[in-house]
C-alpha cells in the first residue's frame, strides 16, 4: 500500500531546513534517492524507517559529514556546500554511535567541544555548568566518560552537542538501547529544549517515541520518503481501527476508518481476533511491509 505525502510542512511560516532532491549513492547503492522535505522552525521531526532505509545517510548529509551526490540542503538559509563554519554554528549533532572521548572526564569532553568552537574560557565554563545541570550530570563532572552508564553517556553527548548554542539539533537514534526510564529522561530533555525554541530532527526505531515526541514524522524506505505527516494524519490515512486476526500462526491486519466498520467486518469472522486503535507501528508495517528495525 502506498500513501501520498501528506503535507510539505506543518504550515509554519519559517522553514529552517530544506532538502531538495537530496541524494547519495555509494557505488551501486542508492542510499538516499531524492528527498524533498521542509522542516519548520521549532519543530520536532522524526525520521522512521527500516534498517538501511537511509536515515543516517540523510543526517550525515544534513550535518555535512558526507557530501550528497545529488540535490541540495539549506540550513537556516545557508547552503551546506557553502561556508561550512556558518552551518556548523547553527547545528548540534548527536550521532548514532557513541563517540565520546572515554579517556577524558565528562567536563573535559565538554571543554574540548567548546574549544573546537572557539568559545572564550569564561563563556565555556558557564555553559558547561548550565549544561551539566540540564542533563543532570553535575555530580559526575570529574568522572571519566568511560565510567558513565549508557543513558548518562547519551545525555553527555546531548550536552556536548548543545555547547555552542545551536538552534537545530540532529539526533540519530538518541535512545537506542536505553532502558525505559533513561529513554524518558531523554524525551524530557528533548521536550525542554524544544520548548525553549530548539528545532529537533531525530531518527528512531521506537514508534512510541515518534508518537509521543514528534510533531511530524517521515517514513523512509529504500532511500525514499514514503509518508509524511503528523502521527494522527498518518493513522487516519491507513485507518484508525485495526482488526487483527490470527490464522494458522500468521497475524493479518485489516484497517477501518471507524469502529462500526471494523465490528461489521469482525462479526463475520470465526477466527481469534483483536479490535484496537491503530498506532504508528501499524502505519509503518502497512507501508514498508516490515516490522520496525527489521
Ligand atoms: N559509508 C558507506 N559506504 C557504503 N555504503 C553505505 C555507507 N553508509 C551507508 N551505506 C549504505 O547505505 C544504505 C543506507 O544506510 P543508512 O546507514 O543510511 O541506513 P539507516 O536508515 O540509518 O539504517 P539503520 O536503521 O540500520 O541505522 C545501506 O544500504 C548502507 O549499507
Ligand atoms: Mg542509522
What does this structure look like?
The protein has 294 residues and is of the alpha/beta class. The chain has 2 domains: 15-234, P-loop containing nucleotide triphosphate hydrolases (Rossmann fold, 3-Layer(aba) Sandwich); 240-277. The chain has helices spanning 55-62, 84-90, 106-116, 121-134, 150-162, 180-195, 207-213, 231-238, 259-267, 280-288, and strands at 15-26, 29-40, 44-48, 70-75, 78-79, 91-94, 168-172, 199-203, 216-221, 224-229, 241-247, 250-256, 272-277. The protein has a 6-stranded mixed beta sheet with strand order 6-7-8-3-9-10, sandwiched between helices. A 4-stranded antiparallel beta sheet has the order 2-1-4-5, covered by helices on one side. It has a 3-stranded antiparallel beta sheet with strand order 12-11-13. Helix 3 packs parallel to helix 5, helix 4 (121-134) runs antiparallel to helix 5 and helix 8 (231-238) crosses helix 10. The chain is globular and about 70 Å long.
